[in-house]
Design a protein that fits this description.
Blueprint (H helix, E strand, L loop, with lengths): L6 H21 L10 E9 L5 E3 L5 E5 L3 E9 L7 E19 L3 E6 L1 H4 L6 E2 L15 E5 L6 E9 L4 E3 L14 E16 L5 E17 L9 E3 L9 E2 L16 H4 L1 E6 L5 E4 L3
Antiparallel strand pairs: 1-4, 2-3, 3-10, 4-9, 5-6, 5-7, 5-8, 5-11, 6-15, 11-12, 12-13, 12-14, 15-16
Length: about 280
Amino acid sequence: MYHLLPSSLVLLILLVACTMGCIQSIACKPRIRRENIVVYEVSASIDQCPTIIEENSPIVLRYKTPYFRASAGVVMPPVPRNETWVVGWIQACTQMEFYNTYGDIGMSSWELPELREGRVKAISDSDGVSYPWYGNTTETVTLTGPTSKPSRLTVSMNDNFYPSVTWAVPISNSNTPMLTHITRDQSFITWLVAMNSVTKERIVLQTVRWRMRVDIAVDPDMPLGSRASLMGRPYQEQPHILNYQEPIPPNALGRPNANDAQVLMWRPRRGAPLVVIPPK
């Protein structure tokens, strides 16, 4: 059963609604929300080429892994006055095993103690300057309000390993080559994020998981230039672009980054471990 409201009451309701609408339009700025952001052409890959081994130095072996690459297009809605938003990539290391074996003498290992002991879930892989972002060139785009129309932008990043490993035992005064094996297995999460620079509100737009593995056998008795050979699969497993968004752990957003937090340990076959290079 329906009841008709008196025309005077209808007029009053409309007047109040219009008044409230005007007040809200003045007081309430439009907010940037996930549903108003468009993400397109997301790509994540690791170059289809093997790790390159360099034996040019009598002091160190070097190896260069293929590049991990990520890119995405984003359409951001108009940014309100007095707001600044940054869109870009944040990366964190979630697991690391990095062992250099010297026969039956022992091994050196780069370690992230807090991660290894389970005290944190991830450690920032920022460049050490642009926290929390991976970098501040192609990796991020900054939008300062007010903008009157949507902004179309592209952000991209790349990452690889290019370390040096001593032929000789790192704590020895001898230059005799003793290196016999290099093993590395490292995992990362990379997030595409929109962040309000003032309030630090973060909107995760995409999550990518990837892993890089290295397995190198070394015969120290061979002449320089023919000691090392790549073992196992020649190509890396391709990254996974997730169909859900993973939260960003606090340690992925600030200091220290992985390069500053890592420790080089010497772990002899017999005897106590020794810190060779402490964290920065």
